[in-house]
Amino acid sequence: MPPLNSSAAEQAMADAAWVDAHPALSEAAAHWQSRPWLGLDTEFVRERTYYPRPGLVQVSDGERIWLVDALADLPWPALAETLSHPHTTKVLHSVGEDLEVLRLLTQGQPQPLFDTQIAAALLGRPLQLRYEHLVEEIFAAALPGGKARSDWCQRPLADDLLQYAAADVVWLPRLAEHLAEQLQACGRLSWLEEDCNRLLRSAHTDPIDPVMRVKGAAGLDDEALAMASQLATWRDEVAQARDLPRSFVLRDEQLLALVKEGASALSALPMPAQRRHGAALRALLQAGPDPDFTRPLELVALTPEDRAAIKTLQDQVAKTAAELGVEPAVLASKKQLTRVVRGERPDWLSGWRGEILSLSG
After folding, report:
1. Which of 179, 274, 293, 338 is most buried, judging by how many CB atoms fall within 10 Å of its CB?
2. CA atoms of 314 and 333, how far apart (whole Å)
3. Are residues 179 and 272 in the same domain?
């Protein structure tokens, strides 16, 4: 790609194409699939729903920008084909919830993936470095911020929101090129490829036990935790079916009160919740916890020996991280090391981390 300066980037942002019709998306997708790098980002709203409500998909090839209206009736298979096109690397920064939004729209995921936040961390930058800070550091370009929580489903979108959305992708292809060259020079490009592939796999294969989302559940004994798990699973099912945040169905403190006090705690729920969910909750409490419930390893109390072993591994990871010039959490977080100490063999130890770390539970 030709060099991009702040002036050219601002012009590209000003000229961003609004895509809300079939021919325009199909034509753009054909162009995207001819490019080696493609910057992607999404904007969505998730304040009163279980699932994110997609508002916008931003795309940049490093020279031009497209703002795809996620509320329009568009041929999303065209975007799905782009996401899976093997010769176009999709560049995102901290892919996070973008995967969920893209999956809702296209039933696909961006592969091959280049996450610039992970790439920067592998080169010694802070693990959670923001996109605008990375752009400012590398390209000396200032980007607008503070708009992520806007209502991206309103129409028309204000000019400042359009500019913010365009800015989120305009530098991504250049960032990827720049970081890929540095990773290649220090022999870490394959590390990034491995991490991105693992991230995509885990988006489908690492479901979170609903009880893990209940604040305060760790302090419950096994029987109470099993009951909390039943209620948390029910809450998730209702929230998904009604597309509501979990807290709109049952707040954590209400769930724990039901576990501790039983059906008597139902009277403390708001009347609408009692009318809608009272019978189901009473039936769950009467049925009792699942006798086959197994306490999640993450909620098993650590022994003094466990803590000592974790500390030993943390020291080892910190030493190796210092030699590599990266943050220790880039190699392994305390949570990940805890799983190793408990006897698990996580898949990340089968890759490049396993080659430079000698960890065992």
Report:
1. 179
2. 8
3. no
How is residue 239 annotated by DSSP? H
Residue where one domain finishes, among candidates 177, 205, 233: 205
- Report the length, in residues, of the chain: 361
- Model pLDDT for residues 78-133, shown as the tens digit of each residue: 999 999 999 999 999 999 899 999 999 999 999 999 999 999 999 999 999 999 99
Residue 293 and residue 311: Cα distance in Å, rounded?
Answer: 30
Largest Cα span, the chain = 69
**Structural domain harbouring 305:** 300-356
pTM, rounded to two decimals: 0.92
Q: Note whether 331 and 354 are within 8 A (CB).
A: no
**Is residue 170 located within the same domain as residue 80?**
yes
The rounded distance, in Å, linking the Cα atoms of 190 and 31 is 28
pLDDT, tens digit (0-9, with 9 covering 90-100), for 191-203: 999 999 999 998 8
CB neighbours (10 Å) of residue 264? 11
State which of 154, 171, 205 marks the end of a domain: 205
Query: CA 74, 79, 82 angle in degrees (round to 5)?
Result: 160
> Quick check: is 68 in a domain?
yes
Which pair of tokens denotes residue 39? 């910057």
Question: Taking the C-alpha atoms of 33, 34, 36 and 40 in order, what is their torsion angle to the nearest 10 degrees?
Answer: -40
DSSP sequence for 96-135? TTHHHHHHHHHS---SSEEEHHHHHHHTTS-TT--HHHHH
Spatial strand order in the sheet of 37-45: 17-19, 65-69, 53-60, 37-45, 89-92, 113-115
Q: How many CB atoms lie within 10 A of CB 190?
A: 12
